[in-house]
Amino acid sequence: MNMDALMKLADPCTFEPPFLIQSPTLQSMLASAKIRLPRHSQLIEHMEERILTVTDRVRLQGFYSSQPDSAGKGLAILFHGWEGSVNSTYIRCTGEALFRAGFDVFRLNFRDHGETHHLNHDPFRSDRLDEIFEAVQKISKTKTELSVFLAGFSLGGNFALRIARKCAETPIPNLKLVVGISPLMDPAKSTAVIDNIPWMRRYFLKKWFRSMGKKETAFPEDFDFREAKSLPTCMAITELLIKEQSPYANVTDYFNTYTLRPNFFDKLTVPTLIIASKDDPAIPVEDILALDENSFLQRAITTHGGHCGFIENIRLGSWLNHLLPSLFTPTDEKQV
């Protein structure tokens, strides 16, 4: 993957939304707005459920949409954000654009996301990288003849970037490009930021409490989240759950397992692109600007876009929906 050609395609100057939708709050809300979902979805029409069994009998659910009449241009694997799912609007819209552009698309649910709380007893934690890496390995091996592209949003972007780094130790031969979109860099900072934005705190708490209820229903003898549901902030709940349900001494030790510091990217062997906006309300952009670009790492930092939004017009289309198919198209097909 030619990084210079890639950066020409991902030129942040090509994203300039109209004034009416430049607000970072509006951009962030529109990322998940159901009104953006296509009326007729080829992605959904051609999907098949897949249950991947990885180490320690962990089961992860995904949905694979393959091109019906021919081999795809490549295989795109998509990761959602925290308390999102394969059906999050930003995942569905991105997957739809990629499928219509000729790619096979695999949307993976993390443990305890979507409707998967019954599949595994132990709850989701963001340090569980190995099971997601093994899932990507398995997905990639299903189509060894295809180039594989991985894109993750928010926490999913954090997972995607960690997978790119892990490939230096355990390569995935046909993984050609990793893209982190509005990726979580420092969970301690972002959790504090979310707690200080009332609408965002309420949004995530509502989704988290619903998720806790699903876990209680799946394993009524083992989980009781009443105390957690009584707490007012994401940080307070995280501190409680890490203390009660994890091997970590404190939340700082836990956050350190998936904080992405500048030197984390020094040993990349897979071309990696970070797409972020300066006005992201959840991810302080200075942590991304502090990264040193290298021959495998590039950044595309837009002025606007909010958190995972990048909505480019009043029809609510996303810049990402034509950018990612362009980035993933084989080099010999690109006009740059």
Which structural traits does this protein have?
2 domains, globular, alpha/beta, single chain, eight-stranded mixed beta sheet, Rossmann fold, 336 residues, 36% helix
Q: Mind explaining what this structure looks like?
A:
The protein has 336 residues and is of the alpha/beta class. The protein has 2 domains: 3-185 and 260-333, Rossmann fold (3-Layer(aba) Sandwich), CATH 3.40.50.1820; 191-259, no CATH class. The chain is 36% helix and 15% strand. It has helices at residues 3-9, 24-31, 42-45, 89-100, 129-141, 155-166, 187-195, 198-218, 226-229, 234-245, 251-256, 286-289, 320-328, and strands at 47-53, 59-65, 75-79, 104-108, 148-153, 175-181, 272-277, 297-302. Strands 1-2-4-3-5-6-7-8 form an 8-stranded mixed sheet, sandwiched between helices. Strand 7, helix 12 and strand 8 form a beta-alpha-beta unit.
Low-confidence stretches: none
CATH superfamily placement of the largest domain:
Alpha/Beta hydrolase fold, catalytic domain
How large is the count of helical segments? 13
- Whole-number radius of gyration? 19 Å
- Report the count of strand segments: 8
Largest sheet: 8 strands, mixed
Order of helices and strands: HHHEEEHEHEHEHHHHHEHEH
Question: What structural category characterises the helix and strand content?
Answer: alpha/beta
Strand content: 5-15%
Q: How far from one another are the termini?
A: 13 Å
What CATH calls the topology of the largest domain is Rossmann fold
